Amino acid sequence: MVSMVLAVFLITACSGKKVEHFPSKKEALDSFIEKEEVKGNIDLILTTKGESLLAIQSREDVFFVGELIEDKDGNYYARRISDNVGVGIGASWELNTKNKNKYTIYFENDKKDSNYLPFSNGEYSIALSEGHTITENTLEFTNTINVVELIKD
């Protein structure tokens, strides 16, 4: 029994995908865009905690979130931290980053609110709140967007 558990563990440990690291943010983002076959816009959200999140329009009204990470050697890689979500007139979902920070991202069709910023495609407004506000069922909103930059349009 122990050997079977060990074998399963070894197979699982060895089958993980190797993430390619790049000397520049641009190279990491270009590779990520190609791998994920991104057709729409990408906005880089710099959080108040110093993290770089990628709000990505995969196609039409389908979005997902990624993270741009600098490793200890000064190289970069990007990774997906959410599934695809059909946004329609609006949607929100929870995120966990590499540094174990928890966020909730909101996409709303043309929302006029001080916590929301326009997404680069002009069709949606986005907000990012600290914590998992959906699971925690809280109305408390702590805006964690420091800066938003257009990466791809």
Salient structural properties:
alpha+beta, disordered N terminus
Describe the structure.
The protein has one domain. It is globular and about 40 Å long. With 153 residues, the protein is an alpha+beta fold. The N terminus is likely disordered. It contains 2 helices and 10 strands; from the N terminus they run H-H-E-E-E-E-E-E-E-E-E-E.
What portion of residues is helical? 10-25%
Radius of gyration: 17 Å
Give the count of helical stretches.
2
**Number of discrete domains:** 1
Q: Sketch the topology as an H/E string, one letter per element.
A: HHEEEEEEEEEE
Integer average pLDDT: 88
User: Between the first and last Cα atoms, what is the distance in angstroms?
Assistant: 54 Å
**How much strand content do the residues show?**
35-45%
Poorly predicted runs are 1-15
- CA-based shape: globular
Largest sheet: 6 strands, antiparallel
Number of DSSP E strands: 10
Provide the fold topology.
Layout: H1 2-14, H2 25-36, E1 42-47, E2 52-59, E3 62-70, E4 76-80, E5 85-86, E6 90-96, E7 102-109, E8 117-118, E9 124-130, E10 145-152
Antiparallel strand pairs: 1-2, 1-10, 2-3, 3-4, 3-5, 6-7, 7-9, 8-9
